């Protein structure tokens, strides 16, 4: 049976994968690490004689004895550890009757003071512009209607109740001392006083 190049490539890839898997499996299962050697006990040498050792010094040696990997139970170091007395300068955490520690009071609060926000109402609409007319006199007709003399710049107008001046200002009421005028662009009503020269 003749193999095509495509089948040969697949066979080579499968063979490479099997060889790689076998190498990984061998590496995981082999135990090349040497057997651990038993450690020799280390002798602790001290320059002080045994009679002058304090209980704290013996307790320090108890800690070093645990590094010698000796599994036998030694009663001597255990009795020394039981005779140790707590001699701390602060509060005894194992005694309910010991004096509490004086905790200093904080100088300032850890939280910043938050002031209440001041409510400011939203600004209202701007006031309407003043009416640009000047009232400087009146005239009474033969029928008894009162007319107002109004000045706008250099232009002079003669108007009675209900008439419109400058296509913007409506005259509402003409009296002897004032004129009530409405600005029709913004519904603004103002009373114009009589200007006396």
Overall pLDDT: 78
- Strands of the biggest beta sheet: in what spatial order? 4-5-6-7
The largest β sheet comes out as: 4 strands, antiparallel
Strand residues, percent: 15-25%
**Helix/strand order:** HHHEEEEEEE
Q: Bin the helical content.
A: 10-25%
Number of helices: 3
Q: Mind explaining what this structure looks like?
A:
Residues 42-55 have a biased composition (Polar residues). Residues 35-63 are annotated as: Disordered. Keywords: Membrane, Transmembrane, Transmembrane helix. The chain crosses the membrane at residues 12-29. By secondary structure, the protein is α+β, with helices and mostly antiparallel strands. Among the domains are: 56-80, no CATH class; 134-193, SH3 type barrels (Roll). Helix content is 22%, strand content 20%. It has 3 helices and 7 strands. It has helices spanning 5-29, 55-65, 75-82, and strands at 134-140, 146-152, 155-159, 164-165, 169-174, 178-183, 188-193. The strands form 2 sheets. It has a 4-stranded antiparallel β-sheet with strand order 4-5-6-7, with no helix packed on it. A hairpin with a 4-residue loop joins strand 6 and strand 7 (188-193). The radius of gyration is 56 Å and the shape is elongated.
